Amino acid sequence: MNRIYFDHQATTPTSKEVLNEMLPFFTDIYGNGSSQHYHGREAGKYIDIARRQVADAIGCKAGEVYFTSGGTESDNWAIRGVLDGYKDKGKHIITTCIEHPAMIKTLESLQKKGLADVTFLPVDNEGFISIEDLKSAIRPDTVLISVMTANNEIGTIQDIKTIGKIAKENNIIFHTDSVQAIGNVKIDVKEMNIDLLSMSAHKFYGPKGVGALYRRNGIKMGSFMTGGEQERNMRAGTLNTPGIVGLGKAIEIATRDIDKNNKYVSELRNYFIKEVESKIDNVYYNGTKSDKCLPSNANFSFEFIEGESLLLRLDLAGISVSSGSACSSGSLEPSYVLLATGRAIELAHGSLRFSFGKNNTKEEIDYCIENLVKIVQDLRELSPLFLKKKGENKYV
Ligand SMILES: *Cc1c(COP(=O)(O)O)cnc(C)c1O
After folding, report:
1. For 257-341, where are the E strands, in sequence order?
2. Which end of the chain, N or C, is less surrounded by CB atoms within 10 Å?
3. Whose CA is nearest to atom 10 of ligand 1?
4. CA of 207 to the centre of ligand 1 (A)
């Protein structure tokens, strides 16, 4: 069967160009980047190049980039590191209620143990926080403001520059989870006053299991992984040379091609939205239709339908999409992100995220629409609520 992949916000394929860069580092240039001999120095040289590639992409110094195992680790480290580094000032953290579970679960667990005191800012119907809410949440003991650049479920892009400015004026550390944003949103950490930033290679056509944390020089932080002296004594563990080389190449390509890819992918996405809205009734777009949305993202609630059933039927037709975030799918809880935007529980249950990528085509979208129209129709014919609304339900 011809398989179609519309789940690029869960992960992307590693591009051939990136893979080819990585391959020699498994077999030929295998030295431990921390060793002083020839083999170590060779590996170290390419790790330095990757560090420079990451730095150039976000406008920081190479020495401000720390390699990690991915977005989850970078998020954990940012939170725990700042709590550790600024414990004399306090333990109050301001964040949003639509952060990725890597943030939310970490904060909730710290809060439960009494190690953090967290304010979760609400969002409006399109997923934006209010700058006024942010300002009034600030307290003398606030050590960290953490607001994701772009949301993984609905794609909403926050006003990071303004948030960074407020953090700076109030002398508070500002972290942003840019895992979804890198390659889609132009980031300049200096201009946006970002102190800490999380990224993950597999979200921008790089390999899985490698990411980075940008830490502005001077930000006080404890290390997260303890052990050897890698990463300036801040993150122990033998460096994942192939992964790091892949991350560097992937971010270089993603930054170079950002305008081209955004244009191509958003055109596909806009065409998809137009088709869904013109061919299917009782469907609700989630998020914002302004340009403050990831170009790849289209999230819809289909009334009278379970997102999970729709996902499985699309899968049978060869189309991979997501209901909620990959981390919570499989659970029967409706998406907390959609609930936060004010979606009713029934509609939140009936939602699907389609996320497109640079290798998708218009033909794939047409095939998807054709199937989606039929499947939605089928599933609704089985729904007592739908039949009742149509006045055709003999049983209700
Ligand atoms: C995917 C994702 C993460 C987690 O990144 P991993 O590299 O998979 O650990 C964190 N935050 C956001 C917004 C994400 O989309």
Report:
1. 283-286, 297-302, 319-320
2. N
3. 71
4. 13
